[in-house]
C-alpha cells in the first residue's frame, strides 16, 4: 500500500511547487490512474514514488516504511520494488530483446541459470516467446512496450509505475497493452500506478484514480466512490468521455442513468 501524506515538491527556481500538500492512498493490488493536465505534477509524483525525486516535505509510506527517510543502500533495495515503464519504451538498441530484459538481472547479480529461466518466463508472460533474439528496431510499438514491461518486472517488483505507457500507441495496441497490464496485475498481484490523460484508460482497467491540478490533489478514490460523487470532477470527466460507456456505466452507475444510455 502507498500512503502519501502532505507530500510537497518544489524545484529550485520554480515559481510554484510541482506538488503541494498531496495526501493520497493507493491500495495494495490496485491499478490506480493519476490524471491531470500537462504540468499538473503527475510525473513528479511518480518520480517521488521511486525517489528519483526527493520530496521537499511530507511522507511517502510504502508498505509501512517512510521512503523519504531511507539511506542510500536502503533506497537501492527499495527501488527494486518499483518497476517502471515509459512512453517511449527506453529500450537499449544495442541489445536484443532477451538481453534488454536480462539487463536488470545482470545488474542485480542474479545467477546466469536463474536469469535464463526468468527471461524465458517473462517473454512468455508478455507474449514474446519467439522474439528473444529480435532487435528493438524490428519490433512494433506494442511489442517494444511488452519488452519494457518484461524488463520492469525482471527483478520481481511489488509495484509497476507507468509513465504515459500507452500514449505513443494506436488505440487497438493501447487496448492490448492495457489488457496485458490487467492480466499481469492479476497473475502477479502487483500494484500498478499509471499516469494517463485518457479517460478510456481509466475506464478500461483502473480500480481507483486521482486528479491533480497545479500540483494539488483535486480528488481521489476508488472508481465506485468517484462515481457516487454526483458533483465530482472525475465522475464528470469519466461520463463525458464517449468510449466504453455502456460497459462502464453498467458496472458503476445507478439504474436511471443506465436506462439513458441503453
Ligand atoms: N526537473 C525539473 N526542474 C524544474 N521544474 C520542473 C522539473 N520537472 C518538472 N518541473 C515543473 O514542475 C511542474 C510539474 O511538472 P510534471 O512534469 O510533474 O507535470 P506533469 O503533470 O507530469 O506534466 P506532463 O503531462 O506535461 O508530463 C511543471 O511546472 C514543470 O515545469
TrEMBL record:
Top-level taxon in the UniProt lineage: Bacteria
Predominant subcellular localization, coarse grouping: membrane
Keywords: Amino-acid transport, ATP-binding, Cell membrane, Membrane, Nucleotide-binding, Translocase, Transport
InterPro entries: AAA+_ATPase, ABC_transporter-like_ATP-bd, ABC_transporter-like_CS, MetN_ABC, MetN_ABC_transporter-like, P-loop_NTPase
Residues annotated as domain ABC transporter: 2-239
SMART domains: AAA (SM00382)
PROSITE patterns: ABC_TRANSPORTER_1, ABC_TRANSPORTER_2
BP GO annotations: amino acid transport
Family membership noted in the UniProt record: Belongs to the ABC transporter superfamily. Drug exporter-2 (TC 3.A.1.117) family.
Protein name: Cell division ATP-binding protein FtsE
Organism this protein belongs to: Mixta theicola
